[in-house]
What we know:
With 345 residues, the chain is of the alpha/beta class. It has helices spanning 25-37, 49-58, 81-87, 92-101, 114-125, 161-179, 200-209, 237-262, 266-282, 288-291, 312-327, 330-341; strands at 11-16, 41-47, 68-70, 107-110, 135-141, 147-151, 185-189, 215-220, 232-234, 293-297, 302-306.
Amino acid sequence: MKDSGNNFSRCRIVVDAMGGDFAPSNAVIGAVEAFNENKSFDLFLVGKEKKIIQVLSSNNLSFSKDFIVNADEVIDMGDSPASSLKSKPNSSIVIGAQLVRDKKADAFVSAGNTGAMVMSSILNIGRLHGISRPALTAPFPNEKDGYTFISDVGAFVDSKPDHLLSFAVLSSIFITEVYGIKNPKVGILNVGEEASKGYKLTLESSQLLKKINLNFIGNVEGKDIFKGVADIIICDGFIGNILLKFAESILPFLRAKFKNYADKNLLNKLRIGIVRKPMRETLKSANYEELGGLPLLGVNGISIIGHGSSSVRAIKNMVLRANEMHQKQLIQKMTNAILEYSIKN
Length: 345
C-alpha cells in the first residue's frame, strides 16, 4: 500500500475481515458490497488471506488480491484487549490500525473485539492533540423522527470532567458534519433537571461546559433520551454502555411480544400481518444494521467499531459511513474544534 498523502477526494478504507461473530464471511461480503455500490474509495481487506479468498470465491465476488493485506493472527471476542495486542502483534486489529497510523489508509472498520479496537486505535492510530479520552458516540432514535446521541457508550467505563467536555465537543462536530444538525443542544445525563442535582462528575462537568461556546442546556434525565430534548447527551462510559445494551434489547423484546400475541390465535395473526409493514418502517431507525457501527471519536483517523453480530448490511453501512466521514474531512474539523475550545489533557 502506498501513502498517497492527505487526499480527501478518495478515501482508503481498511476492513477487518476477521472481526465479528460471522467473520470472515459477513465482513468480506459486506465490504465488497459497499465498494460495488460506491466506488469512490479504495477498499482493503486485512486478515487471513486464504480465508478471505475462499469467501470471495464461494460467493463469486470479484476483488483484486492486490488489496488484501495478510494478517496471520486473530484477536477473538473473549481475548483480553490489552494483553492480546501484545501477544498477537500480527492480528488484523493491530495491522489495520497501523495502516492508518502510517498514512497508508484513512479509515479502519471492524466488528471485532471492541476493547481491542479501542486500545489499538488509541495506541496505534493515536489520539488527536488535546484529547486524553476518546469516546464512542451512539445514536438513539427519538420521537421527533431523529436521533439523540449518547457519548460515551463504553470506550471506557469511567471518566473525569475534562473527558466529558471532550465528548461534548467531538460529538457536536460529528453530528453537525455527518447528520447536518446545526448548533446541537448538549445535555448531561443526571438524576434530575435541577442544576444542584448530581454527583461530583456531573456537577464539575457542567461547570466546564458552561465556559465554552457550546449550546449546553444543562441536566437531562433518562426519560428525555427518546423525547429528543437534547441532540447530545454526555455521560461516563459505564452508564452509557448500560443504556446502549438496554436500547439494543428493545427491538428483540418487541418482536417477541408481537410473536407471542400472534401465536395465540388466527385473528391475532391477521392483525399483526396488517400492521407488520408499518411497524417495520416505523422501527427502522432503531435497527443497528441501518447505522452499521459506532465511531471512536478523538483518535487521529477514522475508526468505526461494529456490533459483534454485525450482518452483511451492517458491515456495508459501516464502510459507507467511513467514506462519508472522510469526505467531510471530519478529523481535520475536530482538530480545529479542539484548538478553538482549548481542550487540554
